[in-house]
Each structure stands twice: as structure tokens, then as C-alpha cells.
Amino acid sequence: MSDGPRQRGKATSVAEDGASGSDKDSGNSGVALKKEIGLVSACGIIVGNIIGSGIFVSPKGVLENASSVGLALIVWIVTGIITAIGALCYAELGVTIPKSGGDYSYVKDIFGGLAGFLRLWIAVLVIYPTNQAVIALTFSNYVLQPLFPTCLPQDNGLRLLAAVCLLLLTWVNCSSVRWATRVQDVFTAGKLLALALIIVMGLVQICKGEYYWLEPTHAFESFQDYDVGLIALAFLQGSFAYGGWNFLNYVTEELVDPYTNLPRAIFISIPLVTFVYVFANIAYITAMSPQELLASNAVAVTFGEKLLGVMSWIMPISVALSTFGGVNGSLFTSSRLFFAGAREGHLPSLLAMIHVKRCTPIPALLFTCLSTLLMLCTSDMYTLINYVGFINYLFYGVTVAGQIVLRIKQPDMHRPIKISLVWPVIYLLFWAFLLIFSLYSEPLVCGIGLAIMLTGVPVYFLGVYWDNKPQCFNTFVDNMTHVGQKFCLVVYPVGDQGGKLQKRGFDFVYGDIAGSGISQDMSPSVRLQEMIRVIRSARTQGEERGVIQRECAAIRAQFRQADNGGRSHNLAKLLYVHMLGYPAHFGQMECVRLIASPRYSEKRVGYLGAMMLLDEKQDASLLITNSIKNDLSHSSQYVQSLALCTLACMGSAEMCRDLAPEIDRLLRASNSYIKKKAALCAVHIVRKVPELGELFTPSARSLLSEKNHGVLHGAVVLITELCERSPETLAQFRKAVPELVQVMKGLVMSGYSPEHNVAGISDPFLQVRILRLLRILGRNDEVASDGMNDLLAQVATNTDSSKTAGSAVLYETVLTVMDIKSESGLRVLAVNILGRFLLNNDRNIRYISMTSLQKIVQTDHNAVQRHRGTIVDCLKDQDASVKRRALELSLALVSAVNIRSLMKELLLFLSCCPPELRSHTASGIFNAAERYAPSQRWHIDTILHVLTTAGGDVRDETVPNLIQLITTATDLHSYTVHKLYRALLTDISQQSLVQVACWCIGEYGDLLLRGECEETEPVQVTEDDVLDALETVLQSHMSAAATRGFALTATMKLSTRITHNVDRIRSIVSIYGSCIDVELQQRAVEYNALFKKYDHMRAAVLERMPVIDKNSPGHTNGETVGGTVKGPDQTKIKQEEGTVTPQPANQVCDLLDLLGGSEEPLQPCPALPTPLGPGSVSGGAGGELLDLLGGLDPPPVPCVRVYEKNGVTLTLQCDGQTDTAVTVSLIASNSTHGDITQFTLQAAVPKSVQLQMKAPSSDVIPAGGLGQVTQTVLLNNPNKVSLRMRVRVSYIAQGTTFQDTVQIDSFPATVCK
User: Fold this and answer.
1) DSSP state, 1261?
2) Rounded distance, CA 811 to CA 848, Å?
């Protein structure tokens, strides 16, 4: 018995045999239906199949049953809308099930094989042969009518001309898909032009006032009684006129990008046809009365005779053209339906084959033509159409119902277009009404149609469902298929060989067509272009993988063949697969074979594959060493070039050592093309094996005399590489500076050369390379620098900077000038060039200009200052990177001379700068103000302005620094407290500002209450006003714990500065004695103790702080002890610097130490007690009091300095230790004059130790030791091994990036215990 798998096996073997010669000749890609139907042709298929002869000949059917003109027009519109809804449903099905065959394929996939077969059976048996026969007869009738003006043409003549029409169009469709679509496009355009003429003539009639039957009062005048049955018949007639709207779904697989073009074509065509139908009927009504229209046998001809006069012959010709295009469209689409049915096993397998060269389904077309010719021989075709019309429209409804079923059965199925289920429901209700009415009105006709359809049931079970057919029958079918294949020169398409042809209805098999000449044009795999198209059209990643896996399997099989002429073709496809990220390693040995091939076309693909699939780590790369060596001596320069490119791309150190002499030989060759490639290959060799540089030094020097720019470019790159890697070579090539200068002058002064000109610059790539080499040669060498000074000045003055190429050359010139020992005037010229770059519209050029200026601002400060205005303008740039670079450069330009003007610009920028730049801007303003402040008042005003604008973005050390500044400005205490009080009343959201304001009110509250201030208008406040302000801070949800601590301390201090509200202060303090915040609670308890137990000491403890000396032992790195929220950190710093806490001499000092920390005996505390972490407490006479209040004197903290370089100091400090865990802090400080930015730390420890690094406090270390960056590291040491840690330090200082690694083997003593 013949079964499906056996047949498919034969098919595969046939395809393999037939494809043996494909790649040898032209790389043909196997036989498959071509995707040649674009959007225009798709629209032509739909419009051409819908618009047949009906609209020209008999639009009277709708009017006759509608009983009035107005209702007839409504029927045309409604029917067009319903057709559009059905087309929407088919659009979703078409992209969800992207298979040719239209509703047959959809019904078969959704409802099963029997339902699909019945749809195919009725179409094959009756529908399409009869429709095509009728359209062909209509064509012949209108063609012959002018020849028989007084009588009707002979019936035999009509049938003969119709047969000629069918045969001609069948030949066109068999010849080429493109020809068929072009015919369809042309004749569709012709019928649209004819209808456009009718519509235009109708509009002319309307303009003349001929619109009697279009007026509302006359449009609905019925010429017979309205009847529901007749109206239903009108809708049925209208739906017949729109028939063919689903034909594009029959050729889905031949559409270009069906997921896009199928729905687009439907959405364009259906509204267009509806518009044409409605307006054509309106035009008819303007020229004829309803009675005249109903009496006419050819409405368009009568319309032409009335309005076109002598040009009335246009209408019969238009009808003929329309029907001719209709026959072509019907042949084209119906043959695809039969092709799809045969492919699914429901028709003979021969119909599923296509021509090996033309790629058209010739058997399906011939079958369609033959069945239509048979219909022409019968006189009962019109009766058959009436019988099966009901069945045809029944399957429209079944298909749309299948859409709803598919939504329910497979809701997660991929649907590129998904419409609402309301539309298919509306469509089904409309068709149910029409079909039920048809069944009711003509039950006999519908019953005969159903009977004809049911005749397909036994055929299905005998031909399709029955597998075990007699062997003789299978043999007969095999032989017939064999003969048909040879006769038509057809095979199965690629993709159907491996199982896509399922169980076949008639069990036809593939024939053995060996020896027929077909084998030379077949290929077992597709072309590269076709494979790329299929992969790109994959809807899911799984579908893409499936395509690639099948293609890779075919490539593997061909690689295993001993004599395979398509290796290069297959390897090219494999390289594309590799580019997509899929494994392609099995092609490595094929690369080796192709490289050894004597044919250039194969060598080229082989070397390309080696560069993509091989690298120096794979052993297969060693196999091509000998081939490369042989090809380096090849007589063809192109083969030598392939070898050189491959060696330069993936040559390993061993290959470079073996082939270096060959490269040196080629550097001395006479061919410039080879010398250019060899120079670049030598660059790769020097990078891989630096000691081989000596071998190329003489050759590289000789290449500088070459005139070819490519060789010069390669030589300069090679010399640059040699000089960077060897100081001895650098000294040798410094003697070549005059030669390089001459080459560069030749480029600068040369005239226009079209070969090398880029935007008016002569070979800017070579100029840039030479300038880079000169920079290396002139660095730290005065003689070489003097030799190139004049050249650099010439380049700087003669190069046009209006184009990017010129800007690149000028930029390299500037870098060279700044890097060598150039003259001062030349350096000023370089800075001016960078200044011109700042005015460029290109943001990239402005950015690199400011980056370069930042590098030289310290050495050429005055020259850069000239461009200060332009740099400040860049702060307004929209680009964030340009804005950041402009900010850094503006801060670097601040000096004592321009501090006032530049600070105004920076403060203005701070008010509108992005949030990510506020912290950096505020830090820079603070540093500049501290270094260059013209007066203390200006200094204080500037800092207060920053705090008011960006108080939430300033660093922690800002508050103690400002407090220290205020204490030193004794003449400005009243001014400062008044200004801060106003700021406090205005805004309490800026925490840093509020903290300083609270501190000043606590210290200088008496000055505020006096209301005396010369520098500013004093504020008249009362004690209650001040306490209200502080209490607002204490109670605000915006206040941090540290801020509340400042406010509470200020409130306490006011108890010694006011007289009438001490009880209120006592009550405020007592409230916070039970605060949930521990620090605030402890402070409140201490203050309560002062009120109750030690009230006699309160005035002394809370008296005004003395002036704080920034350089005193109590102030380190800009931080006031007890004045910030980082009390413990300050203690650590003091311990690190070796300061010793002095022992106070009396009880008062003990208490002072307890509340704020005193550094000198018999002296009040020099800093405000902080709400977080008390200061140092000394033992003495007040020991009992200390124990009573719970003094917290931290033990000495062990630390060790691990890194000190470039002004950056890194200290390791032990914070805590348990049996198995250690907590350490890495503290970085900066002693330079500029901020250290992008500071990062990375750490590594042995595997037995677990490491956890917390986030650093900042990535910027302020200049001049004004702040620190701290990062905490947790070390878990369960095995208690000796601790070791390696730390990588990275940062940017003065525009230069530094990176160092530190090995820490000795931790502080307590850690190592």
C-alpha cells in the first residue's frame, strides 16, 4: 500500500537528486512560489475580481427588487458595508492562518478535513468553472457585438472566442506570475477608468440639473409595492455584485509581506468598490429613468448612447476589458485554490507541483482551464450557477463562524490583526437572514445545491480517508503523476518536501524525473536572499529558530558530500546565521577547505568565514597558516589581499611569528595595494608580538617616501605603534620628523584632489594620523618640537573649521600643540581654536573643546580666561553632558579677579540646573567662595543663597563650615542672625539652612531680640515669635532628626538669653524627654537635668561660643567638633591625627565636655552640642555627674594609611569587630586644589572571607581637604584566617583618569587579633 511517509521519502530523494547542479551553475535556490504580488497588484486582484461585467450590464437587479431609486442606493451602500465587515473577518483569518486557499484553508483548519473538502469539491466541480465560463462568454459577446450590429452572434462563435480567451490567459498565467499580475493591474485600471468616465458624466448631468430621481421627494417613489421578500432579493443581488472580495486570501503565500499587505489591500479595495458602485448607479439614474434602466439589457451601453454620442463605442469596449480582466483574475486565484487543495492531500498531488523555472502552478492552471472549457460545452451552466450560489454564500458564513470558534478554541494564538467579535456576529446575522430567505423562497434550488455538495462525501471517504487502497491503483497513480511531471516539467515546491504534503486524497506520489533535465535547476535549500527574507518574516523567535535549524541541517548534509560545488553558497548562508547569533562552528573546517581552493570566488568566502568563525584560541586556525603563507606568494594581488586581511584580523601570536618575514617582504613590494594591506597587517603583528617590531622598523621608515595615501596611512599607523611600544624605536623615528613635516605640508598646501578630498580638506584621515604621530615624537623632546612648530602653526591657520573634517584636524593639532614643548604663542593659538569650537553648532565639538580646555586650564589659565563668556553661555545648553563640562570648566576659571561676576552666573545656573548637577554646583561654589571670597559678608551671603536655593543637595560638611565662618565674622553676627531668621520664616524645607539658622538663633538670639542691625533692615521680633519659629521646626514633618536636635539646643540656649519665657522653654524641653528618637531624647533628658539639678550651672554651660579657629585641634578637614551630625566620625579623625583630649580642671568643664566637647581646659566648649553623638568627655571631678548622665567616650579607633598618591589619601579604619566579622571604613581625602571626581573603590578578598561593600558617601572628594568620602566594608571571616584585601582606586583629577591597585596585608591591630 502507498502511504504518506513513503511518498514523502520519495519526494525528498527526488528533490535532492534534482538539485545537484544548482549551486554549480547559478546558485539557484530551489523551486518555490515567488512572492511577487505587491500592494498594488493585491488591490488589483480584489477590485478586478469584484468589478466584472455586472455593473456595466445589469445593475437593474437591485433596482427592480428594491422598488425605488432611494432604497436601491441604500441597498448598494449597506451591502458594501457588510462586505467590508466580511473582509475584516477574512483579514484577521488571513494573517492568523497565512496559507493560500482562502476560506477552504480556514474551514479545513478549523472544522476538519471533511468540511474543507466539501468547500473545495463544490468549487472544483461547479463554482469556478461555471463562473469563468460565463465571464468568458460575456467577453466574447461584447467583442463580437460590433461585428453583428443587426443580429445576435452565433452561439458557436461565442464559445470559440471564449475558449481562445481562456487559453490565452492560461498561457499568460503559466508563463509568469508577474505577467499575470501586470495583466490584472492593467485591465483593472481600464475598468476603473471606464467607471470613472461614467461617474464624471453623471456629475456633469447633476450640474446640469438632471437629478430628478435623486431628490428625496422622488427618490423613494415606488414603481411597485414594497415587499420584504423583494427587498431581501435586492440585498442578495447586491451581495452577488460584490462577489470576489475574498479572492486575495487564495494567494496569501505569494504576497509580499502578507501580514501588512493583505489587510491593507482589503481596507483600500472594498471602500473603493463601494464608492464606485454607488456613484455609478447615481450616474445611471441621472441619464435614465428607472423604467428605462429596467428595460435596458446593457445599461452602460444605453448610458453611453445617450451621453457620449459618437464615442458610445467606449462602453462596449470597457465591458469587454472588464470581463477579460475578470477571467484573468478568476484563473489566477482559482488555480491557487486547487493548488492548496492538492497540497493538503484533497486533490491529485500533481496539482500541487510548480514549474521548475517559471515557479507557476501549471498543472493547477491547466486543470482550471480544462474544467472551464468543459463548462463551455454545456448549455446548463446558468442553471448550475443558480443551484450552487446558495452553497457558495453558505460557506462564507461557515468561514466567519470559524473565526469565532477559533477565538474560543485557541484564544492565545498569535493574531497580528484582532477585530472585535461584534463584527463577525453582525456579518453572520445578515447572511443568516439572506440564506434563510433564499431557502424559504426557493427550497428546490437550494436543496439541489446541497445535494450537489453532499456528493463530495463519498468521494472524500474513498479518495482521502481510505488509506489502504489497492496496490494496482497506487501504481497507476504513480505512473500518471510521473508522466504529468515530465510533461509539465514540475516538481514539489521547497518546504513541501519534508512533510508539508499531508495524507493525499488520491495518493499521487512524486515521480522520478531523473534524466529529464530538470535536475540542473533544482536546489535542496533556498538562496541566501530568500533565506534572509523568510527569517525576517518569522513572527516568533521559535519560528525563526525552526527556519534556521532546517537550513543548517541542509547545509550540514551538503557539507558531508564529497563533491559539492555549492560550498561557498552554503558557507555564505552559514555566515548570515552566525551574524544572527546562532551556532555555526560546524562550518570551520569548510572555511579551511575553501581557503585551500584554487578558485578566487571560493577563497573569498572561505577567508571571510575564517575571519568570522575562527579566532586565535581555536586549533582550526592553525590549519590555515600554510594556506595563508602560500597565498601571500600568489601571483594575484587580490588573493594576497585576502590572506593579509585574514592574518590582520585573527592571526594568533604563533601565526604572526611564522608569517612575519612574509609580511616584511610584502612591505618592500612594488604594488601599492599590497603594501597598504601589509602595513596594516604588520600593525597587528606588532600588537600581538611586540618583539617583532624591530623587523619592521627599516621597512616602515622607507614607506614614508611613498606617494600613495593608503600606503602612507598604513606606514604612519605602523610607526605610531612601534614608537608607543619601544623607547629605542621612538628615538630612531624622531629623526624622521622632517619627512613627516614635509608630507603634512604637502597635504595642507595641495590643491583639490577628488580622490582624497573630504569636505574641502585633503585626506583628513591621513592628516590626523600624522598629527598623532608627531605628538608622540615631540613629547618631552625640544628638538623634535622645534621642528614641527611652524607646521602646526600653518595647519592651525589654514584649515577650515566650518566642516567636521576640518574640525577633526584642528582638534588633533591642538592636542599636539599642548602635548609637545611648543612655543607660548602657539599654545595661545591652540586655546583660541578651542574657543572657536565653543561657538560651533555641533554639541560634540563643543564638548571636546571644553574637555581639552579643562586639561590645560591650570597651565594656560589666562588664555582660557579669554573665552570665559562663551564657556558660561554653554551652561544654558540643552545637552546634559555639555552642561556638566561647562560647569566644571567655569568652576576651574574662578579667580580672585572674577569671583563676583562669575559667581553671579553660577548662582543663576544653580537655580535652574538639573537635579543631578546641583550637588556638584553647590560644592564648587562653596570651594570657590572659600578660596576667593572678597569679604566675609559676601562669603556668608553666597553660602546662604546656595542653601536657600539647593539646601537639600549640599554636602554634610557645609553646616559646620558655615558655622565656623559665622563665628569668625564677629561684626556680622547681628546681620547674619537677622537674615537667617527671615529665611527660617520663609522656608523650613531646606534642612541645612534650617540647621544653621537654629544654631545662630541659639547663639545670637539676644542680638535678634534687640532689633539692632546696621547692615540690613532689622526685624522687630518678640521672644514668643522666636520660640514659635523654633517650635515650628521641632514639630514639622519635614525636619530631620539632626535638624530637631539643632532646634532643641537653640531653644535651650535661649533660656539664658531671654527673661520672660523660661517656663515655656522648660515645657518644650520636657516634652522631648520621651521622644521616640533616642538621640533627641537623651539630649532633652540632659537639658532637663540642667533645669532641675544643675540650674546654677546652666548660664555657664549655655553661654555664647567663642570664635572657632579652623586650624585649631578641634577642627579637622573643615569639620567642627560637635557642630555637625557626624560626631563619631569627628572622633575618628581626631584619633587618627593623634590629638589628645585634655583633662578639664573643674566640674563646669566636665559638663561642657558632656554637652558639646571641649578641647582646652578651663575654656567653654568651642562648638555647639550636636543632636547626634556627643563630643569627647574627660574624667575629673565631675565623674559622678558623667556616670549619672551616661557619658559616651568612644575608645581609640585603630586605623592605617593604605594609599597616598596624586594628592589622594586613603585610610583604613576599624569601626567594629566580633568573633567572625569586622567592619572597616575606607576614608579618602583630597589635598589638591581641584575636586576629585568619579571616585570609586573596588575590593577583593580571599575566597574564605565574605565581602560586602556599602554605598559610598559621595563620588566627589572636595579640594583642599574640605571633605572626605567614606565607604563602609563588612568582612565576614568565619575561618578566622589572616585578613588580606586588594583595593582598586579609580578617580579623575584635573581631567586625567587615574587607576591604582593597593594590596593591604596589614590591618589595624585590633582587627588582626
Assistant:
1) B
2) 9
Q: What is the percent of the chain with per-residue pLDDT over 90, rounded to a whole number?
A: 2
Closest CA relative to residue 363, chosen from 574, 173, 599, 88: 173
Query: Strands 1221-1230 and 1237-1244: what pairing?
Result: unpaired
Give the max Cα distance, the chain.
143
Quickly tell me which residue has 566579622 as its cell: 1221
CB distance 831 to 863 below 8 Å:
yes
Region 1168-1191: what's the mean pLDDT? 37
**Rounded Cα–Cα distance for residues 1199 and 1309 (Å):** 9
Q: How many CA atoms lie within 13 A of 815 on its CB side?
A: 20
In the chain, how many H helices and how many E strands?
59, 14
Q: Which residues pair with 1225 in a beta bridge?
A: 1213, 1272
Residues ≥6 apart with Cβ < 8 Å to 436: none
Give dist(CA 1119, CA 1129) in Å, integer.
Answer: 10
* pLDDT interval class at 523 (50, 70, 90): very low
How far is the C-alpha of 698 from the C-alpha of 705, rounded, in Å? 12
Cell of 414: 498569535
Contact 363, 490 (CB under 8 A): yes
Which DSSP string do the residues of 498-566 spell out, in sequence order? TTTS-S-SS-------TTSS-GGG--SS--HHHHHHHHHT-SSHHHHHHHHHHHHHHHHHHHT-SS-TT
Cα 994 → chain centroid: 46
Share of the chain above pLDDT 70, in %: 84
Phi and psi angles of residue 1252, each rounded to the nearest 5 degrees, phi first: -140, 120
**pLDDT tens across 314-373, in order?**
777 777 778 888 888 888 888 888 888 888 888 888 888 888 788 888 888 888 888 888
Give the chain's length. 1313
What is the DSSP code string of 1188-1223? HHT---PPPPPEEEEEEETTEEEEEEEEEE-SSEEE
Write out the three cell numbers for 1223.
Answer: 567592619
User: Considering only CA atoms, which of 515, 32, 539, 26 is closest in space to residue 259?
Assistant: 539
526 torsion bin: left (phi>0), alpha (psi -120 to 50), beta (else): beta
Cell of 138: 460575456
Q: What is the pLDDT of residue 1289?
A: 92
Distances (CA, A) of 1185 to 226, 650, 1147: 114, 80, 9
Amino acid at the residue 7: Q
Q: Residue 876's CB: how many other CB atoms inside 10 A? A: 13
Predicted confidence band of residue 681 (pLDDT cuts 50, 70, 90):
very high
- Alpha carbon distance 77, 211 (integer Å): 19
